[in-house]
Design goal:
heterodimer; A: 306 residues; mainly alpha; B: 522 residues; alpha+beta; nine-stranded mixed β-sheet; 17 strands; 33% helix
Chain lengths: 306, 522
Amino acid sequence: MARFVLTRLVQSLAALAILSVVVFVLARATGDPLHLILPMSASEEDFANARKYLGLDRPYVEQYFSFVGRALTGDFGTSLRARRPVGELIAQRLPNSLRLAAFAMTVSLLIAFPLGVLAAVWKGTGVDRAAQIVAVLGQSLPTFWIAIVLIEVVAGRLQWLPAGGIGGLSSYVLPGFTLGWFVVAGMMRLLRSGMLEVLDSEYVKLARVKGVVEPRVVWVHALKNALIPVVTFAGIYFSILVTTAIVVETVFAWPGLGRLAYEAISSRDFPVIQAVVLTTAAIVAVVNLSVDCVYALIDPRIRYAR
Amino acid sequence: MRLSIALLAALLSTALVAGPAAAQGKPDLTVALSSFSTEVLDPVLGGHVVKYYMSLMFDYLVGVTPDGQLSKDTGLATRWEPSADHKRWTFHLRKGVKFHTGEETTSEDVKFSLQRAIGKRSTTGYAGPLRTLIADIETPAPDRVVIVTKEPTLIIPTYLSRSLSTEGMILPKKYLEATGDDAFAQKPVGSGPYKFVEQVTGSHIKLAAVDSHWRIGTPRFKTITFKLVPEETTRIALLRRGEVDITDVSRERVKELERESFPIHFRREEAILTTWWVLPRDGQPTKDKRVREALNLAVDRNEIAQSIFGGYADPAHVPLGLSWSYRDIGFKVTPDMQYAYDPARAKKLLAEAGFANGFPLTMHAYQLPGLPEGKAFSEAMAGYWQKIGVQPKLVPVDYPAFRKNWFDRATPGAFGYYNVANRDWIGAYAFLEKQAYTKSKASDTVNDPEIDGMIEQVMRQTDKEKIGALMRNVYTRLRSEHYGVPVVYLHSPYAASKSLGKWNPGTVMYDFFLDELASSKR
């Protein structure tokens, strides 16, 4: 087991190292940030001054190793746009994204669980079809469209909930629902197919033959086994929610990591782009590693197969 | 039991539907903006756009009225005068003005602030021209500052006023030296009517009123919060819920908001949408004046104003012509200067210039802050020019990519545009110095020796009448030579809450004059 974990850890670190090179190169390929920072009247001397002040006058290789060296100590440099330490910006924004993702995940699970189980139990009925519609809509409707409709109707017209910004629990509802709907659809489908398989298994049939009441068969015996892939995917979905909320955070004026990424990309803020990408990649790597470990613990065949 | 449930439901629905308190008599003012620009709270690093919130925290050396006129009543300087040779400008400072730290403002603070504004680290809009112009700053007394210039000039007071950028903001020397630049940018201190409370990047900036300010008395609003809300639907929903009092809206949402009785405040002619062709002209069809005129005549400005900008725009006729400066210099757009929409004559001119079959034209298409219609506009221009035989090739890019092309002169003859913030004569001069003066090199779009000569004279001229004449001549030549395609003046709408009351957003670029709205002396 220790060897398995070590191998996975090395693979994750290698992925992060490769990613650091890719993001370093791609960030610079998007253009010169000084054209956004400096005014139109800036002279060549102004450009040279700013380039020197921001450390952009050094050779790329030197810039890269300086960035990696500092990143290893947790120092991602200073934002070119906000002129603040990047670590401080991430520390300010990441908790907001984590809280929103946690809220979205909780809501998703609360909806997906009963819906998935009932759709399997009442396969082919109206409930099943309704659940299928939820799944199709959740996975096909664009997030930005859902967000704008909710803001326009629920916040603007009906004035039931806040339209944007971070505040009390009510401010989480619309962005959380928008973010979580996609997850509801995925989880519900996963749970439904898992439940269908389990409900058809021998041990469930045996439980029924032994006279166990149907709700207990479904919610205890069957659900427990159908949950394994769902729990695994929940972890992965959570990391996706934290790292891909750019649209939701922008539309709902939510000061999270996704918004930070959007602001950084649109202003060519290299240090922030690099830090956000590496932070999100690290989150995904840690979650994947944890999932792999949990899987390996649950199913010993995985350790030997790999 | 049934009654209790009904009561509970009623209470819940009231709580949900009512939302925040209406703005009437509210002690707090909230402004939602689509962009905060850099979000750096240091005047020398922020650029122009930060003025929206920074103007509340700092006093300027020279104050202005909301319509952009220099004022001895609204800045730190109570009066100023030049020496006979116009190379020494003496500013007399107001006594008893205190920073938020409690220390009194002195000439040392003014000197320190100006040196910082023109320092190498500064990225303000006019740091470059000021650096070239200023030779020395003297402080003969705590309430007197003398700015010594290398050349005779009239423009120093305006450059250091609220009507332009942030160079005139006065900072506390002692506090800044004690805390350092980085700490200052995170907790700025000025002497304005509002002091810094908190900033959450990407979310909001909150300011709190000082007890009493020399200029506006005790501010009406205890706090002013600027919220960053990029999505317009969200900003409008916040307005409907009473969570914001002022917000920028697009021209296409104006009628809808007016139907709901939200007051719309327009900053008329807030920007000119003007276009140009990347230099050099040599070897390009646009080298021929007839081609430039043809491209102007092919554009139906009224149609663009109506269809793309919802009627909230007016045709423009002078390339780079900033109309807020016209009054100062006595310039008038005469009927013969107005471009007719005349595609037939445009075709004829192209044929005379040897381009009867048109020519390929690269057209960059990009969005700009305050111009969500950017790409639609570029496509419309391509359509007009296609009608007279030109073969436009639309290249979707983002503005910084175009700006690099433009500055590097990588795509000669290519079409670019900008919604240039309108400004008074000195602001217009500073703009022309950037974009119509050959020595500006990278950002020049005109390259005309005659105009270069006039711009150089403006800088050295100390007779206001002669300055006016020179500026008029610059505009006249820009128009007669068709150095670009001026399209429309844009009226920018700002929606307000129904209870905000009378508000004059003024005519100074990137400044809402919220301190005037908050003034207890109104």
